């Protein structure tokens, strides 16, 4: 097949598209692709100190398809949704009106859907277990939830019951959660509202808590909380969100298990952590697998033992670069930062732009609905850290595909921007792999294969001839100067 005959399939539109995406250096945004990018906002982040304090004014809606306001709680007496921070959430009594402010961002960003999340770790499980077990209470909650969501103009509700059957729940929660979701779905769909749920990623949690196949009929998306697979609570240094591992505690297993249980790929949204797990070990120059204390050290602003935001990590590395040794764990696809003396080590295992890009690539290859972020307020939303240059080193057999690699993300939200950039690159890579024949059926013209200098700007898509490349560049120039 000739180059010219291949162009209608992928060459001309895709080359122009990629050059427009990355040519200016600003990268892709969520309207440049067909995947979901769901952004949780932990609204208590406003109370953090210094540059880590996250106000809704810092939110960039061009980087998300769905924004989820986390969290609301359950009013057990009224079987209704309640605000957990009325001053931040509501406008009553001179409040800051967080609900209205986030929902109001749709006016200038019509692609954006805004949901309210109910639950979360601190809400526990028992109160949701008790409500879901009583048919009358369930019906009251469904009615009240609909009224609450419509009152504040949300596009839907995200259920974050952590977790059915666990933490004070009962075995019957598995069936009762299905009943709750079914009853909510029946009412929400009539009102053109979304219903989603965050679900645990561990095999034991999935198997005990969720009738995956049935839930998938009623939920618009299942947000996989594919992180916290390991932490200081294990007494051993382990990866927070490993892509692969020797046990079942990894991203790939979670996704494959959910697919086997009947979840359609088109409804699964892969969770990405914008934070790392911290460890203190009595082993000098400690590594993954070494023993550690059961309490890790806190991030300076998040102040939670064993937890540190990506923004805190990159700012610490910028301040004290010689204190830390960085290494990449290939199996986990995560970064490891270690600070040691002769008797102990502090270790951070976290996701950087390379980790995020690799997990996005996996999601694209699995044809998942998209990616979910917990949570955007621990990205480098101030743009204080140095760009990372190795984001796409694991992409592509460069003998078979010629990828257009975007420049390193600079400025605000490097992790979040990497998601959309990586979606475009991963889709390009997959398209080329699916289209390029195993053997060329004609001898390429010298200089017309896209080979050349190894810089990112020279990695054009596909085996495009010099004449076609000239037309592409002419078209791009015409578009930019219209």
UniProtKB/TrEMBL annotation:
InterPro entries: Chitinase_II/V-like_cat, Chitinase_insertion_sf, GH, Glyco_hydro18_cat, Glyco_hydro_18_chit_AS, Glycosyl_Hydrlase_18. Residues 433-457 are annotated as: Disordered. Residues 1-27 form the signal peptide. GO terms for cellular component: extracellular region. It holds the Pfam family Glyco_hydro_18. SUPFAM superfamilies: (Trans)glycosidases (SSF51445), Chitinase insertion domain (SSF54556). Residues 35-426 form the GH18 domain. Keywords: Glycosidase, Hydrolase, Membrane, Signal, Transmembrane, Transmembrane helix. The chain crosses the membrane at residues 460-479. GO terms for biological process: carbohydrate metabolic process; chitin catabolic process. Belongs to the glycosyl hydrolase 18 family. This is AGAP005634-PA-like protein. It comes from Anopheles sinensis.
């Amino acid at each position: 097949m000739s180059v010219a005959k291949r162009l209608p399939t992928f060459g001309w539109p895709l080359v122009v598209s990629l050059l427009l995406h990355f040519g200016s250096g600003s990268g892709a945004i969520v309207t440049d692709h067909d995947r979901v990018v769901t952004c949780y906002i932990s609204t208590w982040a406003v109370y953090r100190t210094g540059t880590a304090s996250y106000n809704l004014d810092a939110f960039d809606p061009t980087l998300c398809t769905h924004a989820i306001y986390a969290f609301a709680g359950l009013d057990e007496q009224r079987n209704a949704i309640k605000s957990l921070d009325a001053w931040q959430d509501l406008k009553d009594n001179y409040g800051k009106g967080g609900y209205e402010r986030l929902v109001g961002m749709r006016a200038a960003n019509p692609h954006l859907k805004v949901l309210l999340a109910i639950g979360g770790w601190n809400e526990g499980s028992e109160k949701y277990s008790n409500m879901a077990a009583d048919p009358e209470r369930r019906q009251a909650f469904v009615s009240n939830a609909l009224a609450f969501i419509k009152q504040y103009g949300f596009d839907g509700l995200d259920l974050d019951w952590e977790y059915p059957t666990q933490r004070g729940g009962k075995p019957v929660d598995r069936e009762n959660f299905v009943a709750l979701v079914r009853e909510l779905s029946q009412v929400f769909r009539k009102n053109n509202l979304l219903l989603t749920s965050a679900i645990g990623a561990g095999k034991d949690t999935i198997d005990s808590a969720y009738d995956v196949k049935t839930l998938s009929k009623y939920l618009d998306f299942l947000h996989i909380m594919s992180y916290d697979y390991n932490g200081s609570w294990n007494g051993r240094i382990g990866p927070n969100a490993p892509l692969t591992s020797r046990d079942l505690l990894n991203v790939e297993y979670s996704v494959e298990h959910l697919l086997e249980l009947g979840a359609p790929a088109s409804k699964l949204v892969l969770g990405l952590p914008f934070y790392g797990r911290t460890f203190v070990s009595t082993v000098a120059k400690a590594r993954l697998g070494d023993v550690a204390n059961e309490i890790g050290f806190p991030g300076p602003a998040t102040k939670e033992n064993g937890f540190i935001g990506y923004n805190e990590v990159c700012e610490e590395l910028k301040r004290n670069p010689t204190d830390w040794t960085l290494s990449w764990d290939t199996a986990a696809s995560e970064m490891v930062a270690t600070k040691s003396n002769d008797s102990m080590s502090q270790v951070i295992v976290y996701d950087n732009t390379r980790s995020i890009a690799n997990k996005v690539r996996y999601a694209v290859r699995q044809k998942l609905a998209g990616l979910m972020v917990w949570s955007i307020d621990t990205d480098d939303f101030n743009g204080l850290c140095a760009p990372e240059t190795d984001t796409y080193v694991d992409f592509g057999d460069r003998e078979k595909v010629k990828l257009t690699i975007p420049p390193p993300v600079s400025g605000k939200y490097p992790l979040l921007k990497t998601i959309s950039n990586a979606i475009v690159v991963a889709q390009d890579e997959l398209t080329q792999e699916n289209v390029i024949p195993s053997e060329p059926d004609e001898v390429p013209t010298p200089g017309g294969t896209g080979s050349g200098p190894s810089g990112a700007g020279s990695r054009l898509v596909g085996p495009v001839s010099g004449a076609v490349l000239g037309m592409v560049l002419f078209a791009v120039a015409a578009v930019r100067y219209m």
